[in-house]
Design brief:
Distance between the termini: 33 Å
Structural class: alpha+beta
Mean pLDDT: 83
Low-confidence stretches: 2-8
Largest sheet: 6 strands, antiparallel
Order of helices and strands: HEEHEEEHEEEEEEEHEEEEHHHHH
Number of helices: 9
Oligomer: single chain
């Protein structure tokens, strides 16, 4: 009976998290449509309906000016319906009767409100919960001497004068030239950890070779941990590995067994393995990479409020650029389809994060808000970006593209877009 009660409680908790995930996503849709609505009201557009959700109406209220505010059954979006949208209308307040620059502002304002909300919520998150920063986990023994100025626990703050906001920023800021790196270094002061800025010069990149375990069979243990696939072999018989061919050379020199020091990125483990296991039970692969010879991890750090205000806008811009780079990588094949997700993945991921605490929920809202802002401005049929392209063409040519053609393009585009997002989810199952 107790097990049934626990299972029921777990199921209800999961349902609650999923419902909260829908609420989070609907809030972001509401912000987006509020952007369109606000700009339309200021610029004198006639608005027929402001709807949260799709499908049959659950609640509806009509104002004296004729505007209808409604809540619909399906929490899968929303819309702000303008008079004469998608058709030519003689009403001077109709959408397509307005000047092109006004229409562009209205179309752009949905994404603008998403981006502004990301900034405002980002300020709250960074000030109250701290910002996710890149922290040095370990500097490898084989790293160049100058790079060993870095220490475990250092927060990577700047590279060549540019602030680091995420690991993606760090990987792009690193160059083949010598670098000046500013870190926030922890030290103890009267029993408290304080951070001070330390400037490090002459940090360099070079090419290294990682030895990765690509196949593991057996029960080789150390500290009650199994040797695992994708572990990195840091040492063999006490020799650090960083050059091409080193692993095979030291393996040939070994006797009947070898001692492997492997790392999962945060800790090191020693294993004694039979030499005959390699090529059969154990397979390794050398993988070249260019770096500065260290491992890093993420942690939370609270900057002062002034620094938060300085960092939040560039952070949101960095997230937006990462979205564009990811989409570009999908087109070129540099990024796999497993890196993106459709509505099912989004709801699943959101519900999981909802369960981890309010601070993470707010951070998720920041990330998804920026995603919505960027995605909606893409010149893809059914999105605001495509509508803006139609308006710009009309502005330049002096006459619009046939409204029916526009409707067909947007309708077909919407079907393709929904189908593509669902297909992505299905392929990831």
């Amino acid at each position: 009976m107790l097990n049934l009660l626990c299972d029921f409680t777990s199921v209800m908790r999961t349902i609650g998290y999923v419902l909260l995930a829908f609420v989070v996503l609907m809030v972001m849709v509401l912000i987006h449509e509020t952007g369109h609505y606000t700009a339309g009201k200021i610029l004198g557009f006639q608005i027929n309906e402001f709807s949260v959700g799709m499908g049959p109406k659950i609640f509806s209220k009509k104002r004296k000016n004729g505007e209808v505010f409604s809540l619909r059954l399906l929490p899968l979006g929303g819309y702000c319906a303008f008079e004469g949208e998608g058709e030519d209308n003689k009403n001077p307040k109709a959408f397509n009767s307005q000047k092109p620059w006004k229409r562009l502002i209205v179309l752009f304002s949905g994404a603008l409100f998403n981006f502004l909300s990301a900034i405002l919520i980002g300020i709250i998150v960074f000030a109250a919960y701290g910002e996710t920063v890149v922290v040095v986990n370990d500097v490898y023994e084989y790293a160049p001497e100058a790079n060993r100025q870095l220490q475990s626990g250092d927060i990577i703050y700047k590279v060549n004068g540019r602030r680091v906001y995420m690991l993606d920023s760090l990987s792009r800021y690193l160059s083949d030239d010598e670098m000046n790196v500013v870190v926030l270094r922890p030290r103890e002061d009267n029993g408290q950890t304080v951070y001070e800025q330390v400037e490090l010069s002459d940090i360099v990149q070079k090419k290294f070779y990682s030895v990765i375990l690509t196949k593991v069979n057996g029960t080789y243990t150390s500290d009650n941990r199994l040797l695992q696939k994708n572990d990195t072999v840091y040492k063999i018989n006490g020799h650090t590995l960083s050059e091409e061919g080193e692993f095979e050379r030291y393996l040939r020199q070994a006797e009947d067994s070898v001692t492997l020091t492997v790392t999962d990125g945060s800790k090191y483990y020693d294993y004694t393995v039979a030499k005959s296991s390699f090529g059969g039970d154990i397979v390794v692969t050398e993988s070249p990479y260019t770096g500065i010879g260290m491992s890093v991890h993420y942690d939370k750090y609270k900057f002062g409020f002034g620094e938060v205000l300085i960092r939040v806008v560039p952070y949101c811009c960095e997230v937006g650029m990462l979205v564009l780079r990811t989409l570009g990588g999908l087109l070129t094949g540099a990024v796999g389809i497993e890196s993106v997700g459709g509505p099912i993945t989004t709801i699943s991921m959101t519900s999981e994060i909802v369960a981890t605490g309010f601070g993470n929920v707010l951070m998720l809202i920041v990330l998804i808000s920026v995603n919505l802002a960027v995605f909606n401005l893409l010149p893809v049929p059914a999105l605001d970006g495509c509508q803006m392209v139609f308006v710009i063409i009309e502005w330049i040519a002096g006459r619009p593209i046939n409204r029916k053609v526009q409707s067909y393009i947007n309708g077909i585009g919407l079907i393709v877009l929904i189908g593509l997002m669902l297909l992505i989810d299905i392929l990831k199952l």
